[in-house]
Design brief:
CATH class: Mainly Alpha
Number of domains: 1
CATH superfamily: AhpD-like
Largest sheet: none
Number of helices: 8
CATH topology: AhpD-like
Amino acid sequence: MALEELVGALPGYAKDLKLNYSSLVKQNTELTPSQLWGTVVAAAIATRNEELTAAAIADSGAGLSAEALTAVKSAAAIMGMNNIYYRFHHLTKNEKYATLPARLRMNALRGHAVEAVDFELWCLVASAVNACDKCVDAHERVLREKGATEELINAAVRVASVVHAIGAVLDSERASPTVAD
């Protein structure tokens, strides 16, 4: 199912998500097509909603090259690992863990074929969806060091927040499809 159809079929109680999707994705003026569709795909992957992820990937062809799609998937994959590891550091009171080496391979952070700002943006939105404050802070800082504005970063996070909420609604409807709008 196409992403547009998926969003259009959301229940009435999710009308705000439909409106926000329209204004932030369909009428986007703040992000490049690659940044926008990479953000949509990275956020969809981070939601772990299969239907949303499949639709986002299927519709991303207009804004993402094959290399960029691979980079988005790499960003989401590496953040899936890092977000757990570094969120654990944040959540534990034991400061010893922060002094221990991660010993996790993270070659994807440098081995991608896209603009560094785009890759960092996708890492940031996956980290935001996964609620890892250390990774959000680190990627936001790197983005600003590379010249990204707060407005650009905010635009991507707004898109990610809507994609995440769409995933939550889809999961909720699958769990309780007989509940009325």
